[in-house]
Amino acid sequence: xxxxxxxxxxxxxxxxxxxxxxxxxxxxxxxxxxxxxxxxxxxxxxxxxxxxxxxxxxxxxxxxxxxxxxxxxxxxxxxxxxxxxxxxxxxxxxxxxxxxxxxxxxxxxxxxxxxxxxxxxxxxxxxxxxxxxxxxxxxxxxxxxx
Length: 146
Description:
The chain is rod-shaped. It is 12% helix and 35% strand. Strands 5-6-7-8-9 form a five-stranded mixed sheet. Strands 1-2-3-4 form a four-stranded antiparallel sheet, with no helix packed on it. It is mainly beta.
């Protein structure tokens, strides 16, 4: 059996990344005895060498992995934690002690406020200048403050 030593300029079968088929290619670059880059003789695309082998048949372990599904995780409804927190704080709230919301006023964490649209709320976080996070019955809202 006579083996031909490969070199740049020789033809070789390779999988073309553009044509998506195993076609004849011309060797463009080699490192030692390994083919590195090739040029497709059909579309003239230059790309890394991909050996021209047929597609592999899936193994038995691959088929088993596909049939075994991971256990389904139960998803909590968005905002459920906020509603739970609201329900736990509700008994301690006294509407008469709530301050009417004014965006030009300063607030502290755990202050009780009464918003004209959202109702009774508790300041949970002062975040940066002029912003606060308030927990209302409908969920958390980001409001302006001084």
